[in-house]
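Hi L.,

As promised, Competence protein ComEA:
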Amino acid sequence: MTRTPVLATLVLLFTLITGLAHAQDATVNINTADVATLASLDGIGESKARAIIEYREAHGPFASPDDLAKVKGIGTRTVEKNAQRLTVQ
């Protein structure tokens, strides 16, 4: 009996789990992010992500992450929760 497939499976699972943990920490450029990327932010679902994109298309790029609170349905608390991940490069 070989243990290689079991070991390989465990290594793969560990890699996937740690990769997902790091993905949660990735910065999000709110001026270029797509719906899926914006929806990965805490407190932002698909409909709010679409509202962010509609707002930036109508008003131009965000000058700072705090401007995200100008989007209807997104409050300062949501911006604060995501402050470490937001950028406007």
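The two ends are 54 Å apart (CA to CA).

Thanks again for sending the construct details.

K.
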